C-alpha cells in the first residue's frame, strides 16, 4: 500500500512539479535550486524508497522481488536507473556550463546537451506516469481511483 501511495505522490506530483519549475520559472533566479532540490532531495530518495518497499512487499508474499519479473518491476528498475542518469546529465550540464559566458548563452542559445536533458526528462516523467498506471492496473486499483488520485 505505501509502495503505491509514495510512488504515485512522487511520480504524479513531485517529479512533474520539478519539471514545471524548470520550465515556467526560468526567469526567476532561484529556479535551479528549487528544481534540483525537488529532484535530488525528494524524487530520488522517494523512488529508492518505493523500490525498497516493492521488494519488501514481494518478500511478504513469499518471493524475493526477482522471482517473477513482470512489466511493472522491470519498468521500476529502468525508471530508477533513468532518473539517476538524468540527474547526472543535469549535473554535467550545470558544471560544464559554468565556464560559458552570459553573452555566449544569449547569442547561441541552448546547447544540444540541454535539449537532450529536456527530452530525456520528459521521457522519464512519462515513464513515471506509465509506471503508476501499470502498478495500479496490475494490483487491482480501479480506474476511478486512479483518475481521482491523479487530480487530487
Describe this structure in words.
By secondary structure, this protein is mostly helical. 81% of the residues lie in helices and 0% in strands. It has six helices and no strands. It has helices spanning 2-24, 31-60, 71-97, 102-108, 112-138, 143-151. Helix 1 packs antiparallel against helix 5 (112-138), helix 2 (31-60) runs antiparallel to helix 3 (71-97) and helix 3 (71-97) packs antiparallel against helix 5 (112-138). The longest helix is centred in the first third of the chain and has 30 residues, at 31-60. The protein is elongated and about 60 Å long. The protein starts with a helix and ends with a helix. The mean pLDDT is 84.
Features:
mainly alpha, 6 helices, 81% helix, 0% strand, elongated
| Helicity range | over 70%
Tally of contiguous helical segments: 6
The ordered H/E elements are HHHHHH
Gap between N and C termini: 18 Å
- Extended strand count: 0
Shape verdict: elongated
Runs with pLDDT <50, length 5+? none
> Compute the gyration radius: what is it?
18 Å
Coarse structural class: mainly alpha
- In percent, how much strand structure appears in the residues? under 5%
Q: What's the main sheet like? A: none
- The mean pLDDT is 84
Amino acid at each position: 500500500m505505501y509502495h503505491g501511495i509514495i510512488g504515485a505522490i512522487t511520480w504524479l506530483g513531485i517529479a512533474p512539479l520539478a519539471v514545471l519549475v524548470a520550465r515556467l520559472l526560468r526567469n526567476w533566479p532561484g529556479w535551479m535550486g528549487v528544481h534540483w532540490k525537488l529532484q535530488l532531495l525528494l524524487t530520488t530518495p522517494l523512488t529508492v524508497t518505493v523500490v525498497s518497499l516493492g521488494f519488501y512487499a514481494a518478500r511478504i508474499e513469499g518471493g524475493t522481488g526477482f522471482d517473477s519479473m513482470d512489466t511493472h518491476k522491470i519498468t521500476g528498475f529502468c525508471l530508477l536507473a533513468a532518473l539517476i542518469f538524468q540527474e547526472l546529465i543535469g549535473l554535467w550540464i550545470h558544471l560544464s556550463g559554468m565556464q560559458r559566458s552570459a553573452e555566449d548563452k544569449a547569442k547561441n542559445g541552448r546547447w544540444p546537451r540541454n535539449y537532450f536533458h529536456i527530452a530525456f526528462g520528459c521521457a522519464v516523467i512519462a515513464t513515471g506516469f506509465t509506471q503508476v498506471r501499470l502498478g495500479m492496473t496490475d494490483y487491482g486499483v480501479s480506474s476511478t481511483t486512479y483518475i481521482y488520485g491523479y487530480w487530487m
